[in-house]
Amino acid sequence: MKKLYYSFLLLFAIASCHDKNTDSDIFNGEIKINEDTIIQQEIEFKELVFQDPNFGEIAIQDSLAFFMNPKLSTHWYQVFDLNNNAEVGRYVNKGNGHKEFSPIAPIFNFYIENNDTKTVLFEANKERISVWNITKSLTNKSTVIEKQIKMPWMQENNGACFNEIFVKDSCTVYAKVSAISTENQDATLPYYQIRDLRNGEKKSEIHVFKKDILDKKTKYQPEVFYSHDVIKPDGSKIAQAMLHVPQINIIDTKSGTAVAYQLNYHMTLSDLETYEDLKTYFIRICADNEYIYTVFYGKEPWGLYDIPCVNQIYIFDWNGNLIKKILTKHCIDNIAVDHVNKILYTTSPMDEKLYYIKTNELIGKN
To answer: Which of 50, 77, 115, 317 is the most buried (most CB within 10 A)?
Structure first.
């Protein structure tokens, strides 16, 4: 009788193991495990202090710093020249009137068209993006919007908004659809829509995660699949730094294929099913054409009113290899890289300084 009982337990345990998803059941591509043998190095960044107050999300392009400053009353963006630390101007009017913008998303990337630097401004509530010609705006000392394109998501995506919108070229936009809860307490999965920048029409999709895992019994919360994404400046790849798994996903924009590079930190995609005691891993990302720069935490999530000191930068190449682990002497809030002048910048939650270091100094440290 005891043998029969233990045999039943063994069969039950085997069946339970088979019920759990594996990483390959979840990720729609190859998964590679990276052994972390990198020794962390402490590096001190230089400091910049601006002539005028600055605050907010930051984007960098060719010695220009774009602060999405919520403290400004009439504009969304405050622009500084990093060559002299002076304010260049304030752009993108706030409001609901003519040539004004209601709440907009941060700048996701810049692109060059006809020798002009441009970006897009996403207004979720109006379901549209606007092409902002930065070069002409700086020349005219006022915001120059070239065109506006509809980006419908409320009905087309069943209420799932766009998290990131990257412009690859003058014709192509990659828009990441966020994961959301559904009525049965399951979650949709994040994926990319490829749309035409000229008219907003959807052309195709890229699914990094397999849609059929939603047909299984396991219930996922939408936030467990969250990632911070960045597009390579040349438009050839997109990198995703996952929040709750120590994993970088790299998408080839030409083929639509994805490869996952997972650090051996004893946390995998299949462990997301438990949804208990999840750690926070990657919290920021930026990239140039050589490297991917991520801000790494690796601890339990902090409280709503806490301000933790996060000061680790993990650097990957575009083949998914972890090549550097940096410990900074300052706490990091946002991170951005000037891929033209090869300088990495960070802000800090503790002050209004801008910290920076040349990327060749960072990568070349031994």
So the answer is: 77
